[in-house]
Write a structure and sequence with these properties.
mainly beta; 494 residues; Methylamine Dehydrogenase, Chain H; four-stranded antiparallel beta sheet; Immunoglobulin-like
Length: 494
């Protein structure tokens, strides 16, 4: 970085007040949170849920993930399947949405192999028993089907991520699987998915804990991060066709003799220079592993990640698990909240906007035909120099952490944004020109042009072209054979 920059300030000493503001005052006014949905009965040991409108019907669907049961004495494991719930809307008119289990119908998105055996439950549904599958052995991690190298996963899931890896407009699903291979399911756009782990080159055994995606090398597609109990994985996306693993940057930590237990991970632009940096949490899982350090990796603009944790004021050993990144104080840079299992929350205030003088833009999407929060939409920010910053909106990703669905990009020293492009789930691309910097831009989804409107533009253009050569009167008629207008070669139309 050239010099030490103490960018993050720990507000832990004052966090007691912050904690009360988050949780305590509402207790006096709200006696309880009503149970709005009763048919999401995941009987497993849930570790989280991620939302996306995977079928593009305008509402949010849920992928619920389970971790299984770990017996640390014999290091044995009972796996559990994950569940895909489709939002059916308020079908009975009671004001509460209904959800249906689509795990099998959508393409067996259970996060594990589904080879049947006498001791294996193929999938967990609302009618299934609450017990996990049986069938454990001694000495090793033993799964219900005995296959830890399945490209479908192991059934031990700590995190999942909806992201459009091939940029076909449909959110795909990546599952961070422990003790095996982390699967990738490609969305076919018809409510079903295909398992493509092998085809895209993700067939590598790991101990997946967290997952996130961003365009870290600036080539327009979304690269993938997977944190592990041990060496981490960065996968560079090769134009939506395959992934290539990065092996050399600090993030890989292959030489770490401490066997760091990495949990959550988040890509975000901490210094607002126009590329995505990476923050990871780390924490021991038992008394035999010492406390470990969370890490911030700086992106050099080409996808190379360098550990700068101590330089920016994020050093210190804790037993950290989850994290969230959001501009909590509204000053334009992105702050970090860390959840520790051995102590209170930690809040780190980012002062990058003030220290670097770099500019920024936040984009809040409000869907109409697409889902109301704009979850899963692709946003592209084009700068006057021709460079494009691409980002997708997420609603949950890593382990025990989430984030703000607002798109937040750093602009560096740029003082103008040429245009912002939003690709909605309808397929319509909405363009906003000449956007002011250092603000929150609220984008309301506009209605796509009608077929009749497109036809009018095309036929008018043809008419003008023809009349430009031949002159005279050209009558344009629609499919119902009614005249819309007459265009004279000697007249113009606004």
């Amino acid at each position: 970085m050239g010099m030490v920059m103490w960018i993050f300030t720990s507000l832990t000493s004052g966090l007691q007040t912050f904690q009360h503001l988050l949780f305590i005052p509402a207790v006096k006014k709200i006696s309880c949170f009503p149970t709005m949905v009763t048919n999401l009965g995941n009987p497993g040991h849930s570790t989280g849920g991620v939302w996306a409108d995977y079928d593009h019907d305008g509402d949010l669907d849920l992928y619920s993930i389970n971790s299984g049961i770990v017996d640390e004495r014999d290091f044995e494991m009972w796996p559990e399947t994950n569940i895909l719930y489709r939002n059916e809307g308020d079908s009975d008119g009671d004001g509460v949405p209904e959800f249906s289990d689509q795990t099998i119908e959508a393409g067996r998105l259970s996060g594990q192999e589904l080879n049947p055996s006498e001791d294996f439950i193929p999938a967990v549904s609302n009618e299934s028993q609450d017990e996990a599958p049986s069938g454990v052995g001694g000495g090793n991690v033993v799964l219900g089907n005995g296959n830890v190298l399945s490209p479908a996963g192991t059934g031990v899931t700590w995190a999942a991520l909806w992201f459009d890896y091939n940029q076909d407009g449909w959110e795909d699903l990546f599952i961070a699987s422990d003790f095996g291979i982390s699967p990738l399911y490609e969305n076919n756009g018809d409510g079903t998915f295909d398992l493509v782990t092998i085809e895209v080159g993700l067939l590598l055994q790991g101990t997946g804990m967290g997952a996130h995606a961003a365009d870290i090398d600036g080539d327009g597609d979304f690269d993938l991060c997977q944190t592990n109990f041990g060496p981490n994985f960065i996968w560079y996306n090769q134009d939506g066709q395959s992934f290539q693993r990065e092996l050399d940057s600090d993030f890989h930590n292959d030489d770490d003799k401490r066997i760091t237990v990495n949990w959550d991970c988040h890509f975000f632009d901490y210094d607002l220079d126009g590329d995505f940096d990476l923050f990871t949490t780390a924490g021991r899982i038992n008394t035999y592993v010492p406390t470990q350090e969370n890490t911030l990796f700086r992106n050099d603009g080409n996808g190379w990640l360098t550990d700068i944790t101590d330089e920016v004021g994020l050093g210190g050993h804790k037993k950290s698990m989850g994290a969230s990144v959001v501009d909590f104080d509204g000053d334009g840079d992105i702050d970090i909240i860390v959840a520790n299992s051995d102590g209170p929350l930690q809040l780190f205030e980012n002062n990058a906007a003030q220290i670097t003088g770099n500019h920024w833009l936040k984009i809040e999407l409000q869907g109409n035909q697409s889902n109301s929060y704009g979850i899963g939409m692709l946003v592209e920010v084009e700068l006057p120099n021709g460079s494009v910053i691409s980002q997708q909106t997420y609603a949950g990703s890593g382990y025990l952490g989430s984030g703000d669905p607002v798109v937040h990009v750093g602009l560096g020293s740029e003082t103008q944004v040429k245009e912002v492009r939003v690709k909605w789930s309808t397929g319509h691309v909405q363009v906003i020109h000449n956007v002011t910097i250092d603000q929150t831009l609220v984008v309301l989804e506009e209605a796509p042009p009608s077929v009749e409107g497109d036809l009018w533009i095309i036929l008018t253009a043809i008419a003008i072209l023809v009349l430009g050569f031949g002159g005279g009167i050209f009558v344009i008629r629609t499919r119902n054979d009614s005249a819309l207008s007459e265009v004279d070669s000697n007249s113009s139309k606004d």
